[in-house]
Amino acid sequence: MDTTGGGVARDAAEVADDARDAAEELSQRVRRARWYRILVGAGLCAYGVVHLIIAGIALRLAWSGDGQASEQGALRTLAGTPAGPLLLIMVGIGLAVLVPWQALEAALGHGKVAVEHDPKRRTLKRLSSASRALVYLLLAASAFRFVGGAGSGSSEDSITAKLMTLPLGRILVAAVGIGVIAVGVSQVIKGSRRSFTADLVGSTSAAGRAVGVAGYITKGIALALVGGLFGWAALTFDPRRAGGLDEALRLVRNQPAGPVLLTVLAGGLACFGLFCFVWAKNAKT
Q: Which residues contact 19 (CB under 8 A, 6 or more apart)?
């Protein structure tokens, strides 16, 4: 009986296993490197700055109705300062260095979860890392566009309108809304259960954990509102009802006691920004 095919298949599998082992070993060396931890910490600090600015804009929006309380609005605020281009470059570089961190985690990370024999949980964590890498990449690209004066406002409406024109477009928009709501709910759960501490190494103060709880819960609520707007747009077949973080926060402001509620949300977003500095100091790489 000819076993040549089986032998080739085994050789290919062994080569693939060797390559994967070599890649994981290299990734472990990189993760233990001091320069790598410094870069990750700098990036998380940049991410924290963005959220602190969003919180400040949300607070202004609560009481004056002025400002765009979103990532784009935060970057536009930086661009309007005297040192705008320099600050944007620093933030853009900081966010950009987070991309390979989370991309590496998505490809090879969360090995401890695998050791615990929970492949489903590891897959979810790797998907989460992949989505984080995408968010960091988009924010970094936006920061660099603002440096060149090419930054633009929110484009959620136009994107939703284009989706609506596709076959099954309303279903796609509804799926986006459900996905964003699911992420928001997961953030609320992560904050309430304090499971974000799994992303940290070393000891964390009670204050650090407290701002993490408040930050994750608030950000989760905000994301759930964004997802709800997309879902409402799908139900009403009106892309103008969709929107991003700014539209979601404006919706809160227009409710009874809206300014007070939005002030609370602004405080929570500020907590997330502060937690990013705690995360930067204790990031598990």
A: none
